[in-house]
C-alpha cells in the first residue's frame, strides 16, 4: 500500500516525487487500488485523465509492462476507457461501479467468460480449505491439501438465483490475490485472472446434473432440503492445458439457464 504521507496523483498535475510500494503485493494491483480509491473518493471524476504509463513509471517506480497492466486492469474493471489521442480517462459511472462492487451488487461484465448465472453477487466468502479427493484430483494436488475456495451467492430480482463454489490451483491463487478477497470482482473471476496472470481461458469442459439440494445449499438458495436443483460443473483451462478454475454452480429448479456459443471449424 502507499505510504500515508505520500502525495496523490492530481488531475492536470504530476507529482515529481516517487511513492514506495509494498513489494510482496503485485505492484500493478497496488496502483490500481490507489486509483480506485481516488475515484471512489471523488478525487478523480468521470472523464478525468488518468496517469500515462510513463507518469506511472516515474511516480510509482514501476516498469512499462507493469504500468500497462494497470491500464488493462482498470479497463477490465470498467473504470477506464481510451480517449482522443493516447490518453486514458475515467470511465462514465466508474465511481458508482466501485460503490456497487463494495456493496455486493456488481454485475459481471461482458468481459467475463462465460457470464456467471444470476444477475448480482450478493455475498462472497473465501477460505483456504482442504480439497476433497475429487476436487483435489481436478486441481492436481494431493487429497486433503488446502486450496483457495471462493463462494459467491447471486440474486435476481431479490430472489436467490445461484450458488457458485470455485476452486483455484495454488499457482493461480498466489498470482491473483484478489480471488481471496471476500468481495465481488466487477469483471468476473476469469477476467481478473487474465489481467493478474496473463493467463486466459481457452477451453471449458462442462458437466450438468440434477440432484437433491443438501442442507447448506438449500439454506443458501432459500429452498427446502432435498428440493431438485441443477448443478453445473465447469473446468476452465488455459491454452497450455493447465487448469485455471474449477467451479460448481447450483441453481434451483424452474429457473431458466441459457448459454450462447460461437462455433468454429467446418
Strand order of the largest sheet: 3-4-5-8-7-6
Give the C-level CATH assignment of the largest domain.
Alpha Beta
- CATH names the topology of the largest domain as Chorismate lyase
Tell me the name of the CATH homologous superfamily of the largest domain.
Chorismate lyase-like
CA-based shape:
globular
Low-confidence segments, ≥5 residues, pLDDT <50?
1-16, 104-118
Kindly state the percentage of residues in helix: 25-40%
Give the CA-CA distance, first to last residue: 51 Å
Estimate the strand proportion.
25-35%
CA-based gyration radius: 20 Å
The number of distinct β-strands equals 8
Mean pLDDT equals 81
The total domain count is: 2
User: How many alpha or pi helices?
Assistant: 8
- Helix/strand class: alpha+beta
Helix/strand order, N-terminal first = HHHEEHEHEEHHEHEE
Strand count, sense and barrel status of the largest sheet are:
6 strands, antiparallel
